[in-house]
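quick one
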Amino acid sequence: MISRREFNTHITAAAAGVALAQNTAFPAEVAEARGSAPASGSRKMRAAQMTTFRSPLQVAEVPVMAPRSDGAVIQVEASGICRSDWHYWNQDWTWMGVNIPLPAVMGHEVGGVVVEVGRDVRTVKVGDRVTIPFHESDGTCPQCRAGFQNLCDHGVKFAVDRTGGWAQYVIITAADLNCIRLPEGVDSLSAAALGCRFMTSYRATVHRGRVQPGQWVAVHGCGGIGLSAVQIAATMDARVVAIDIDDRKLAKARDEGAVTTIDARGLTADQVGQAVKEATGGGVHVSIDGLGRAFTAQQSILSLRKRGRHVQVGLTSQEERGMVSIPIDFLVNSEFEVVGSLGNPQPNYPELLTLVAKGKLNPARLVTRQIALEDVTDTLQRMTRFDTVGFEVITRFG
Ligand SMILES: [Zn+2]
Ligand SMILES: [Zn+2]
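structure w/ zinc ion:
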């Protein structure tokens, strides 16, 4: 466990890294039009390609593109399979303007080693071990300049603007901003987890949820996001209630520090909210929806005590298409807050990496299966049935 004071000390110690990330100036080429650069020499790579939505992926040899002058080539050592990839595979999020040209290579949780840098890259070096935030950003727009690279106005989208991480190499733009160097003690499995789910839950819990020691926290949905949130909140000495409909995930949540769990099978959103209130003496201070279905969002809100805070992390599927009704009178009468949380801006990485390097947080503990590139389809199909526990990560690419 870690005290709030110790937690704050870590954050203060990371301040130098924050300032560096916020103030780094980027070469003019960052502003140049994006697009595929020609292939770099004869380097080829194996990649799992989606050629048709919802169909098995095809592992093929494709050329490795050249990095931009501000970019880098990363050799992928570990690459996670996230529910966002599953959403892409299902052709979700067209209502948010996501239209993936096929064939496409998905994958956005990458840990690897820098093997080539463009001539304008200043701080990232060949041989650096790195993680890549899924929100690859330009560093120049108003959001980036304000330190919110997770909301970049011109972000490069994996699988849409470039090939993703289910391949032996990925090409990154604005490498000095988007390649986050790993300290000693943070391995590739952790780096992959830090590409999306774990770092997303970190921001949702610490920065958007503003969880304090001793508070009650509910986590709805114990997939990768949810289990990460359980571990992070428990590490902050919060008292965590985990909710799911799968015994294996509830058991894993208890392993990660949940003090109590609720099996939501057959329960309405109202009943889940009532069960959480009974377990916590009146409701939680912070409630996190890690899945993004109408019922999880609603049961999360109905779990709150007065002045509680609902944090929406999960994005919706075909059934909701982004629209979920919420109990608005309850919002007024209880003055609860609803906040969204997306990714984790680059300036917040030093504090997170320090906690991982010290062993206070352990994203790799959530990796339950290491697989080969050929196995990705199997994982996606089991995700349709919610039949994966924790993180499944590709570590065999050859
Ligand atoms: Zn930007
Ligand atoms: Zn993701």
